[in-house]
Amino acid sequence: MKKLLVVLPVLTLMLVTAAVATQGAAVNGWVTDSRCGLKGTSAAHAACAKKCIAEGAKVAFVPDGTKDVLIVDNPDSLKDHIGQHVTIMGSTDRGKKTIHVDSVKMMAEAAR
What we know:
Blueprint: H1 2-21, E1 23-33, H2 46-54, E2 59-63, E3 70-72, E4 85-93, E5 98-106
């Protein structure tokens, strides 16, 4: 019982820290569609992504250096950035594999 009283607060603190870490962070990545996912992480894929989204695929975001395909829960925020490499400020829900975009900026060509 004593161990539980010690472990429970530590575990709670770790979970709260993890939840806060996924909110408000700037993340670089590609705006693509849910059908192509990882295959859509290039500017050459922009036309295909726009076509897939028009046909019903969801707007997705693939953070650089990951294999995560996050569905954008507010897709209108990225409607002008399909197929582009961007920096997003927002919050993710890793359990649901979604991202909520608060703001978006185009990445400079030199930074790519």
